[in-house]
Design goal:
This protein has about 475 residues and is α/β, with parallel strands linked by helices. It has 2 domains: about 5-70 and about 430-455, no CATH class; about 85-365, Aldolase class I (TIM Barrel), CATH 3.20.20.70. The chain has 15 helices and 14 strands.
């Protein structure tokens, strides 16, 4: 009998992807094999599509047939949060005026986090880590503005975190998300003190400068590329975050080619522009054109031995939560209140009533809104009816909750344009794994060479 949750995804005429996500297994099948699987689900083993039993044997080896029960990746949370990492939203000020900024950074009076607010959060997280017996914790700098504009609190908080970690015999690391418009003095400090950086950079100077402009309306690519080159020279670990607007979709492959030929990032993440903030009402980028451009960009990257990523497509992952937003994420606003989501950085922002779930208490810690916390924890993918029939559900995990709210509001999630991107790019990843495994099937657990040879050569279907 079938022992795996399987999904059948059409590829082309008489070709299908049969995918068992919890078994980490997939095969490319024809229509007769798909019908055979349907019969297996009904308890029929004898079938003309498998005259010698080799297909049944393959399915058994892949644990799709006659194996033990599957274990879904269900992680749940209860009680008060005990975070072991901390994100600080240092400021809403910004030295750029990017046309697609979801946060509209710099448009309102700037809010700056005081050092005492950061220290309270560090104390809370460090105590949790020590109590759990973990060796280290991380402090990340993010938010609705450019973190490095609150330089005093950034540098002072990391210095404090190191002293606190040393007192508790722990290790601590720091990371920052930045627009890359930095002075050399700040670049020097980042190189010397941070473990990793995420830089917003959109590709060629023309693509970048089309939307990432200074307060005076000038392009920022020259200064950002200077920063990236400095990071390359120092061997710093960093990633690039590319945001694609509708007018720049066609330029994406060239932009990825430019990055791969010019710089040495560890990661290149590409996301469609979010229709919020300054880009509210902008043309959607979550389109078939984006999928096509992403695929061409991936080919360009592959020629350089590189990979690009999109946040919702991650076939290598099995989880029921997309991100920390539904897993007790611990992010502090400039006023010291607790949000679970990077995109909910201000108490008066859109969906703040969903994502802000804590505030400072009188004892140096935090009090938590249990109703909001329970709702956030309940947004895991197994509770989403729409996602139940989707082959990507255990990797996408329901996608970004903030973006889902923006797409459908607080009613039951009914899908979004991002879903199409996720399914197509996840399918690409699975097919790439099949191709890398010989073209017949993909199975994550390592097999012996003899087992692999037997499986590759033992199936008589065309193709399996």
């Amino acid at each position: 009998m079938l022992s795996a949750e399987i999904f059948t995804v059409p590829l082309e005429t008489d070709r299908y992807l049969v995918y068992a996500p919890l078994r980490r297994a997939a095969v490319v099948a024809n229509a007769s094999t798909v019908n055979f699987l349907a019969d297996l689900a009904g308890g029929v083993l004898d079938h003309p599509a498998d005259p010698d039993g080799s297909l049944v044997e393959l399915l058994r080896q892949l644990q799709i047939l006659d194996a033990g029960p599957e274990t879904p990746p269900l992680m749940s949370f209860a009680g008060n949060p005990e975070p072991t990492s901390l994100t600080l939203f240092l400021t809403t000020a910004c030295n750029l005026r990017c046309t697609y900024c979801y946060a509209m950074a710099g448009d309102t009076a700037p809010r700056l986090m005081k050092l005492d607010v950061a220290k309270r959060g560090i104390d809370f997280v460090a105590a949790n880590v020590k109590r759990k017996g973990w060796p280290s914790f991380e402090v990340s700098y993010h938010g609705g503005g450019e973190p490095t504009l609150n330089w005093r609190t950034l540098t002072g908080s990391l210095d404090y975190a190191r002293k606190r970690a040393a007192a508790l015999e722990l290790e601590v690391s720091g990371t920052v998300a930045t627009n890359g418009v930095l002075s050399d003095a700040k670049i020097d400090w980042i190189i010397d003190n941070l473990a990793g950086v995420s830089v917003s950079f959109d590709g060629t100077p023309e693509a970048h400068d089309a939307h990432r402009v200074t307060r005076g309306g000038r392009g920022s690519s020259g200064r950002v590329m200077h920063t990236i080159r400095r990071f390359d020279e120092a061997g710093l670990s960093y990633g690039l975050r590319m945001t694609v607007t509708a007018d720049q979709i066609s330029a994406l492959p060239e932009s990825v080619e430019f990055i791969c030929a010019s710089f040495k990032p560890d990661r290149i993440q590409i996301e469609p522009a979010y229709q919020m903030g300054r880009y509210e009402g902008g043309a959607s980028t979550e389109t078939e054109a984006f999928i096509a451009a992403f695929r061409e960009a991936q080919e360009r990257a592959s020629h350089h031995g590189r990979e690009i990523s999109f946040s919702g497509a991650r076939a290598e992952t099995l989880t029921n939560h997309f991100c920390a937003a539904t897993q007790d994420g611990f992010c502090l606003s400039p006023d010291g209140n607790v949000s679970s989501c990077y995109e909910a950085f201000a108490e008066d922002g859109t969906w703040s009533n969903v994502f802000f779930y804590g505030s400072p208490d009188a004892n140096g810690g935090y009090r938590f809104n249990r109703r909001r916390l329970a709702r956030l924890r309940g947004q895991s993918v197994e509770h989403r009816e729409y996602c139940r029939g989707c082959f990507a559900r255990w990797s996408c995990a329901g996608d970004c909750y903030h973006k889902s709210l923006a797409a459908t509001g607080e009613v039951e999630f009914s899908g979004s344009d991002r879903c199409a991107i996720i399914r197509e790019l996840t399918k690409d990843q699975i097919l790439a794994r099949i191709a890398a495994s010989g073209g017949l099937f993909w199975y994550e657990p390592r097999l012996t060479e003899a087992e692999m040879a037997r499986l590759q050569g033992g199936c008589s279907c065309e193709p399996c």
